[in-house]
Amino acid sequence: MDHSREVVVVTGGGSGIGLRAAGRLAADGHKVFIVCRDRRRGEDALSRINATAAETARLVLADLSEPDSLDAVASSVAAEADHLDALVNNAANFDQALREPHRTAAGHELIWATNHLGPFRLTAVLSGLLAAAPRPVVVTVASKGLVTTPRATIRFDHLDGAGWYTPTRAYYHSKLAQVMFSFELALRAPAKLGVACVRVPAVRLDADRLAGLPRLLRVAYAPKNRLAAPPEELAATYARIIRSHTDGGDDGGGPRGSLRGIYVDERLRPVKAPAHAYDAAARARLWSVTQEAAGDPRWAWGAEPVCEERPTW
């Protein structure tokens, strides 16, 4: 099968890893939709991507914390494609300036809504297009910082940060949820769907993003930023995941546990997830409460587990 023109959606395509991943995929001839919240940043990114693109990329404006805008993403993609080969849930909010919880219009804490509820709903509303592809794949992003909190659990009584919030706690809470979402998605989706969650290390911020931080945060983060991984390296990781699954090659030829493990590091080596992610009851509970909080989106393949074999976690 010719996979030279695959359809890919990349969230957070306006900067960092998302920008580089979208640029690489578009340069390789894939039909790329970048999802950005900010029009100016998105249009600037689109110009950079299309300067070297073999296939013109598209910009879709959407805020992951707002459910209605995610439905618009699905409509925009469906208007130009009858299937979706890859969804990269890359965008995330780790705004250290949010010293107090900020609430969305629906009343959810902003980091939780952006990093977990949004990707969950977006995957659901795009599931029909994913189901129409021959070997689709969903890539979701966690954080290497989770290794510092191996006993972290989902705070089911206070999902939206009440009483325990700091931006760092909220961020890692949402990243744990993303790992659990990936594990559960692998059980509930058809066998042809590849599911990979990438444990991303600290990644170098673009100069404009670093400059936009409050002064104290900028000074504190600068040394770490110099030592962080270049975003191009992680962009290559995303691209390799997509290629290996959709091509059915040695790196991800199996219908489940693509890339030799559903949770991988930046070099695609299987790594252990936090212990709570292996708790089947906790994952099922998280799926249920997320489904409700995300507005009960419809999944193309239903809501119950369908996997006949355990993914290679």
TrEMBL record:
It comes from Saccharothrix longispora. The keyword Oxidoreductase applies. It holds the Pfam family adh_short. PANTHER family: PHOSPHATIDYLINOSITOL-GLYCAN BIOSYNTHESIS CLASS F PROTEIN, PHOSPHATIDYLINOSITOL-GLYCAN BIOSYNTHESIS CLASS F PROTEIN-RELATED. Keywords: Oxidoreductase. The keyword Oxidoreductase applies. It comes from the Bacteria. This is NAD(P)-dependent dehydrogenase (Short-subunit alcohol dehydrogenase family). Coiled coil: none annotated.
